[in-house]
Amino acid sequence: MSRAAVRVLRLGLRPYGEALRAQERCVAAARAARAGTGSSSSTGSGSSTGSSSSEAGPAAAEGLVLSEPAAPVYAWGLRGAPAAAAAARLRARGAALAAARRGGLLTFHGPGQLLAFPVLDLRRRRLPLRAYVAALERAALGLCRRLGLAAARALPPPYTGVWLGDCKLCAIGVHCGNYITSHGLALNCCTDLTWFEHIVPCGLEGKGVTSLSRELGRHVAVADVLEPFLDSFQEVFDCTLVFAEEPAL
């Protein structure tokens, strides 16, 4: 049996809102494909970690949106927005605020951070939601192992994500509607961590945040981790990656 194809949309440095809108287009494509109304083709070029679109086949309706936020933004999930006074203080520091349809509380997104939003069909994959979150953690851990961070680990809920000691390196917050996933993970590469000092990240008191750059003692840009992350994602989710400019609707 051939491996499932996942279309990778690499946005690069983009506003957070643009990444969310690209994700929603991928979700619409995945739902249309399940209903038998979506296109099975995709456009893009090949890569050392994937295949060309002509090799993708119908399963390419699944997607993976990768981006780096172009500006600082505090985003919250379905469990509640910050109070008006707190929101005003955050805006005064020059950050935007945004609501996201995902689990989890208030966190920060900004330059130097890799956002990865997988759009996968969990019913087709026969993958329960909690197992899917664990798979995202394994994908991030696989990247850490490739970079030499053997101490990185996943912890039981509510400490979802990837940790080094008491500091979170990678946050995870997902949404699943009609078995189609959205949102995903935020990995600190060379993020300015001082932005996290103005909130309680993910509502976890007494815990810190860290980055690949801090842990490795060198500058690690988002572009530096894309290939190893995609290698790890491909391994964990047993898929073939197809590179595209925009999702086909």
UniProtKB/TrEMBL annotation:
Name the Pfam families for this protein: LplA-B_cat (PF21948)
Per UniProt, the enzyme's principal EC class comes to transferase
Task: Look up the signal peptide feature and give its range.
Answer: none
BPL/LPL catalytic domain: from which residue to which, for each copy? 58-241
Locations listed in the record: Mitochondrion
Q: Where is this region: Disordered?
A: 33-56
Task: List the catalysed reactions.
Answer: octanoyl-[ACP] + L-lysyl-[protein] = N(6)-octanoyl-L-lysyl-[protein] + holo-[ACP] + H(+)
Q: Supply the EC number(s).
A: 2.3.1.181
UniProt keyword terms in alphabetical order:
Acyltransferase, Mitochondrion, Transferase
- State the coiled-coil residue ranges: none
Key word Lyase present: no
The pathway noted for it is: Protein modification; protein lipoylation via endogenous pathway; protein N(6)-(lipoyl)lysine from octanoyl-[acyl-carrier-protein]: step 1/2
Main location, first listed in the record: mitochondrion
Superkingdom per UniProt? Eukaryota
Q: Which PROSITE patterns match?
A: BPL_LPL_CATALYTIC
NCBIfam families named among the record's database cross-references: lipB
Q: What is this protein called?
A: Octanoyl-[acyl-carrier-protein]:protein N-octanoyltransferase LIPT2, mitochondrial
